[in-house]
Amino acid sequence: QVQLVESGGGLVQPGGSLRVTCTSSGIFVSDYVVNWYRQAPGSQRELVATINPNGNTNYDNSVKGRFTISRDNAENAVYLQMNKLQPQDTAVYYCNARWYPKNYWGQGTQVTVSS
């Protein structure tokens, strides 16, 4: 059984940093395209960052230069380091692992940016 579990969310002040983690059981994240999505209340889920099996990364323009996605094969985990957080970054952050036709999602972790 495949499980993706996000952790590390919480409340942070504007300008602060947070790292969210996606740990996997049942698959090796290094074999999949792993994405971080986020969904704010009343909004559609949006793609934030991607890391490919070859290690290449991509970011949405709204987070470029502030967020970094990385992978630790030994820990079988993918991280999203978020710096210079802004109130508009407030959302539930979801981990997604995809390699056609397989597509797995975690349950999400809440990130709230507020003073």
Describe the model:
- With 115 residues, this protein is mainly beta.
- It is 0% helix and 54% strand.
- It contains no helices and eleven strands.
- The protein has strands at residues 3-7, 10-12, 18-25, 33-39, 46-51, 57-59, 67-72, 77-82, 91-99, 102-105, 109-113.
- Strands 2, 4, 5, 6, 9, 10 and 11 form a seven-stranded mixed β-sheet that branches. Strands 1-3-8-7 form a four-stranded antiparallel β-sheet, with no helix packed on it.
- The chain starts with a strand and ends with a strand.
- The model has no long low-confidence stretch (mean pLDDT 97).
Which class best fits the helix and strand makeup?
mainly beta
Number of helices: 0
Low-confidence stretches: none
The level of helicity is under 10%
Q: Which whole number gives the mean pLDDT?
A: 97
Distance between the ends: 40 Å
DSSP, total strands? 11
DSSP strand content: over 45%
List the SSEs and their pairings:
Layout: E1 3-7, E2 10-12, E3 18-25, E4 33-39, E5 46-51, E6 57-59, E7 67-72, E8 77-82, E9 91-99, E10 102-105, E11 109-113
Parallel strand pairs: 2-11
Antiparallel strand pairs: 1-3, 3-8, 4-5, 4-9, 5-6, 7-8, 9-10, 9-11
Summarize the structure.
Helices cover 0% and strands 54% of the residues. The chain is mostly beta strands.
Keywords:
115 residues, seven-stranded mixed beta sheet, four-stranded antiparallel beta sheet
